[in-house]
Design a protein that fits this description.
Blueprint lengths: L1 H28 L1 H4 L1 H33 L2 E2 L7 H16 L6 E5 L6 E4 L7 E5 H6 L2 H17 L1 H30 L10 H45 L1 H13 L32 H8 L4
Parallel strand pairs: 2-4
Antiparallel strand pairs: 1-2, 3-4
Length: 297
């Protein structure tokens, strides 16, 4: 828990440093002044929004390794399961015309696998030790094919871009709503907002961020669900539909063994829990995914 909090803080420090540098450069070049008041605000929000997503994407592989305690597998590994895992990922990468990703295992009873990384050339595919205990080799191959399909589809980059757009508009619209509230409570004779207006504006800004953030999460969750369907189809093309369907059915039997205690790592799961609102779920229900593969959806 302490390690994950530390990594979260470190990532946010990196975001603030990078965004501060970019805004300073834009200010020196006069870009913010040229954009005007609202234009300048939009530029600042875009820099913050895309900056946060970009830094998170660039650090995704590094953070995943340390947060999950992943042990990378090298060509000199002697463990039979690890050798098979490395060989299988290598074969699937060749089938998909992808560079060989880093491959790792992390010690956890959960039944899980994930792919992450800032690009196809710098990707990571990792599985839990619990996956080997719950599934046979054919089913695990289906899971690995699903993860390689994520890499082939460029899902990590696309998700970062979508999140960047959402972040930017959440910040921008929140500022606009807060300014309206501030100005509404300021007397027309005063050039500056009153203390009450500033206080209410800050409260409204926070509330607007929560509200617009919730709407933005619905957008990103929708895309996340669609990419799972595409990854299932891609996995079926690589490993065979039977392997992919068998893997999902086995996963459904062990769904309680997918750790859902850290929502911030929801995208690093092969299946998601039941969100309190289906619109916020990052993964479609497993039965729906199986039906889609079997042509029953």
């Amino acid at each position: 828990m302490v390690k994950r909090v530390f990594l979260f803080v470190l990532t946010n420090i990196a975001i603030m440093v990078m965004v501060s540098i970019v805004l300073f450069v834009l200010g020196q070049l006069g870009v913010l002044g040229l954009a005007g008041n609202q234009g300048g605000l939009l530029v600042i929000c875009a820099v913050w929004g895309f900056g946060a997503s970009l830094v998170s994407l660039l650090l995704s592989r590094w953070v995943a390794k340390r947060a999950m305690g992943i042990k990378l597998i090298g060509p000199d590994v002697t463990n039979a399961d690890a050798q098979w895992l490395l060989a299988t990922v290598s074969r699937l990468a060749q089938q998909a015309n992808l560079p060989m990703p880093e491959v790792g295992i992390y010690d956890s009873p959960e039944v899980n696998a994930f792919a992450t990384g800032p690009s196809k050339k710098r990707s990571l595919v990792a599985v839990s030790s619990g996956l080997f205990r719950a599934m046979n080799k054919q089913e695990i191959e289906g899971v690995l094919a699903h993860e390689m399909a994520h890499v082939a589809n460029g899902d990590m980059v696309t998700m970062a871009l979508i999140q960047g757009v959402v972040n930017a508009f959440v910040l921008y619209l929140s500022h606009i709503v807060a300014m309206i509230a501030r100005n509404a409570l300021s007397s027309r004779e005063e050039r500056r907002p009153s203390f009450l207006g500033m206080l209410v504006g800050q409260v409204v800004f926070i509330a607007a961020q929560i509200a617009f953030g919730l709407i933005g999460s619905i957008v990103t969750a929708w895309y996340s669900r669609q990419r799972e369907f595409r990854a299932d189809a891609g996995g079926a093309a690589l490993a065979g539909r039977g392997s992919m369907v068998s893997a999902l059915k086995r996963l459904m039997a062990h769904q309680g063994q997918v750790d859902q205690s850290h929502p911030e790592y929801a995208t690093l799961k092969i299946a998601g829990g039941r969100a309190f609102m289906s619109l916020l779920s990052t993964h479609p229900p497993l039965e729906v995914r199986i039906a889609a593969l079997e042509g029953r959806a």
